[in-house]
Amino acid sequence: MVRYQIILAYDGSNFVGSQKQANSRTVQGELEKALQQIGWTGTSVLMAGRTDTGVHASGQVAAFDFDEWKYSTEKLLQAMNAKLSHDLVVKKMQVTNSEFHPRFDATSRTYRYRLFYEKVRDPLREKFEWHVRTSFDGDALKESASLFLGTFDFSSFGSKTTENGTTVRTDKVGVEEKAEKRVAI
Questions:
Q1: Cα angle vertex 11, ends 8, 17, to 5°?
Q2: Which one from 11, 52, 122, 153 is the annotated catalytic residue?
Q3: Which of 39, 57, 166, 179 is deepest in the core (most CB within 10 A)?
């Protein structure tokens, strides 16, 4: 069995999320459709996690098995991208071990939230940044973000993923004020 690990980027504006759903356009569904068009007979692309409607990604990890592919990994990456729409791309691809699972083998996750504060709208920025119309207090945001710093046990939200797994996570939060009245969290 040949398992491929891929790194994705997508504009989530026209997806109802990343996880496959009946009668809806999803990232997983589009990946599986593209793979089927180039000879894949697998059952499911494995995703590192789920994103909601409208959420974008620049480094989402996924994996799939594809024994039927007889060409190079580079050719597979090119073939997939040729079948994917303009709002979804495979940035990187590599052969990985057959036991690799993007969700359970992840060692960290990074989430980035962007906003800008201006009195007037900016349609070019609003697709990827939250527009705050009122005055903005960067110090208050930094103070609020500090409440999420630390090590927490999330056992009440789920279970250990492996026998030696843990539900304890360490969260890091950074607030960075940028030029042009922008903030990245």
A1: 80
A2: 52
A3: 57
